[in-house]
From TrEMBL:
The protein's name in its UniProt record: RAB5C
Gene Ontology MF terms: GTP binding; GTPase activity
Entries under InterPro entries matching the protein: P-loop_NTPase (IPR027417), Sigma_54_int_dom_ATP-bd_1 (IPR025662), Small_GTP-bd (IPR005225), Small_GTPase (IPR001806)
Similarity field: Belongs to the small GTPase superfamily. Rab family.
Nucleotide-binding in keyword set: yes
Entries under Pfam families matching the protein: Ras (PF00071)
Membrane-spanning residues: 223-242
Organism in which the protein naturally occurs: Mytilus coruscus (Sea mussel)
SUPFAM superfamilies: P-loop containing nucleoside triphosphate hydrolases
Keyword Cell inner membrane belongs to the record: no
Length: 258
């Protein structure tokens, strides 16, 4: 797919205000992340897609349970040299799709590492889907069984599907299921993603308050130090002044005597 594709702005589904969902696509290079994004957003497939550089951004708005949902899709680069950039995209994101290629065991191993990383580093409320892509090649070249993928997803409480960006199999459903789960989670009291974001923000605000409190106490110390330095300078000045006076006192009697 073309690198750094321009965000597409489809018309909002439904009349209500769109709920924005940041979604990140992760997985080994070549598993088909960009192809999935391209299939979902534009309904296209490119046999000769180039590896993504950095990340690409796409958007799509859909209607889920009467709620207009706008996906902000971050299609990350799977090449290892871009790994360090990934947290920038998944941090704070409420949704992620971890993609592997059903014809590649190494991509499944990499997907497991992504799951581990997200469970440790990402937002604990993140809705994650594990996707075994290139299902159209499964009959001839399958290397990871559907059961293996599903079991791994179940073990970590993730959504699971097998997709084909080439034929479009399950691509749309995967995004809709993710959105439905997020909308459901957001609507259920006591487990509200927006509430959690607010809590995270208030937590962050608390941290900022602590920082500013510390800053204030540093300010106080600075003022005390400044006062001490000024006092020292004042005392030194007085001593010098006193010395000059006493020198003059010694000088004048001598002059008078002459
Ligand atoms: N047969 C088949 N080929 C696919 C499918 N999805 C992607 N491909 C092909 O796999 C290759 C890699 O696809 P990309 O979408 O560029 O892979 P990627 O995960 O974005 O790779 P990076 O950008 O390097 O991380 C391309 O040649 C695609 O045409 C699929 O579902 N079926
Ligand atoms: Mg790509």
């Amino acid at each position: 797919m073309t690198q750094r594709s321009q965000p597409k702005q489809p018309s909002a589904a439904g009349g209500s205000k769109s709920k924005q969902i940041k979604l990140v696509l992760l997985g080994e290079s070549g598993v088909g992340k960009s192809s999935i994004a391209l299939r979902y957003v534009r309904g296209e497939f490119n046999e000769n897609g180039e590896a993504t550089i950095g990340a690409a951004f796409l958007t799509k708005t859909v209607n889920v349970r009467g709620q207009s949902v706008k996906f902000d899709i971050w299609d990350t680069a799977g090449q290892e040299r871009y790994h360090s950039l990934a947290p920038m995209y998944y941090r704070g994101a409420p949704a992620a799709i971890i993609v592997y290629d059903v014809t590649s065991t190494s991509s499944f191993t990499r997907a497991q590492a992504w799951i581990k990383e997200l469970l440790q580093q990402a937002n604990s409320q993140m809705v994650i889907c594990l996707a075994g892509n290139k299902a159209d090649m499964a009959s001839e070249k399958r290397a990871v069984s559907r059961e293996e993928g599903k079991d791994h997803a179940d073990e970590h409480g993730l959504l699971f599907t097998e997709t084909s960006a080439k034929t479009g199999l399950n691509v749309e459903d995967m995004f809709i299921n993710l959105a439905a789960k997020i909308v459901a989670t957001t609507m259920s009291p006591g487990n509200d993603i927006e509430e959690n974001v607010r809590l995270e923000e208030s937590g962050r605000k608390k941290k900022m308050d602590v920082v500013s409190t510390v800053k204030h106490s540093y300010c106080d110390i600075n003022i005390v130090l400044k006062i001490l330095i000024l006092a020292l300078m004042f005392i030194t000045l007085i001593i010098h002044f006193w010395k000059v006076i006493s020198d003059l006192a010694l000088f004048f009697p001598k002059t008078n005597a002459e």
